[in-house]
Each structure stands twice: as structure tokens, then as C-alpha cells.
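for the writeup, i need someone to sanity check this before i put it in the appendix. the sequnce is what the collaborator sent (i think, or maybe the updated version? ugh). structure was predicted straight from it, no edits. if anything looks off just tell me and ill rerun, i have time this weekend
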Amino acid sequence: MRSKNSELKSQICKYIGEFYREERRSPSFQEIGSRFNINKTTAYRYILEMDKEGTVKYDGKNIETSTTSLCSSPAKTNAPICGSIGCGDPTSEEENILEYVNLPESIFGTGEMYILRAYGDSMVDAGILPGVLVVIDKNARPQKGDIAVVLNSDNENTLKQYRGRKNGKYIFAYMNEGQYPGKTIELDSFVCQGVAKHIIKSF
């Protein structure tokens, strides 16, 4: 097979990367041919030669380039947005699923997640401002320093930093030294409804 046009090879390689970012799949030979005004057989031959040279990797189904290999997996975790959570004194709230959203696993990980919208100002030092969305890992157990959704014995919940246990009490701290210096909540017992892993906010 005669060596193909090197400039066209470069353009095809770039196109494959751009196509994958948009469509999350490799373009077909027909699509490559249509883009560069060549027939699909010629496009196929270009890919074979580029695979031989190492410019792309073709396994008979998918075409990979250095760009596509950097793209994250399209796998997603489906998570409900469940109303709001108080960043202040504990409040009585019932779970209210507003909608479901897909979270990319490459960023948020896997597992059972849910999302709460924060209100109140007790966690601003942790970057949790009123209105931000907090992604909660439902099955995680809090370690010292984690920010947890806590349900107390009165069925009231709040979002606070877990500070461990002291004198038989579980200590949860406010994180706004400007407004609540040193303020904590001490509980005899609690139910953890998950640990905050990410926040989503708009600039």
C-alpha cells in the first residue's frame, strides 16, 4: 500500500479525538470519509496504515488516539438530589427527592451517592456556602475530620465536621470561626446518613 498523505493523517487523527469528545465513540469509516471527502475504503486504509505506524490504535472496532486515551470513562453514577440540609442548628427535614442526576464516576467515584443543597453559614470555612450542592457517600462512615450528615436522637439532621469522641460524647463542630468560634454539638448517640465527598457550586 502506498504511503498516505501525512497532512491528511494528522487531520484524521485530530478529527477522531474531537469526535470522541463529542460522541463518546469512535467515528465510523463512513463518517471519516464524509468529513474528508474520501470513500470509506480509503478511510479504512488510512486507519490501517496509521495503526501500523503507531499514530492510532485500531482493534477492529474502536480507534484510539493520544487524545481519546485522556478522555474519562463515560460511566456515571445516578444520584438523587434530596432537598436541603442545614448548616447551622439541627433541623427537622424529611427526605424529598427533587430529581436524579448523573455523576461521572471518573470524578465522583462509585457507590451509593445522593446530593443535598446546603443552607446556613456554619460550614463556610469548609467551602460549603448556602446554595451549594453537597455530594454525599451514603454508606461511608465518618472518620475524625470528615464532614458528615448527622441525625440525632430527636430525628433532627445537620451537616457538621466529626471531631471524634470525648468524655463519652460524640463531637461535631461548626466550621465558621468568624461567626461561631469553637462551637460544637455534643451527642450521646447519632445516626450517620453519609459523609460529604464533593461540593458543586456556581461561580
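The CA atoms of residues 173 and 184 lie 4 Å apart. Residues 76-200 form a domain with the Umud Fragment, subunit A fold (CATH 2.10.109.10).
thx in advance!!
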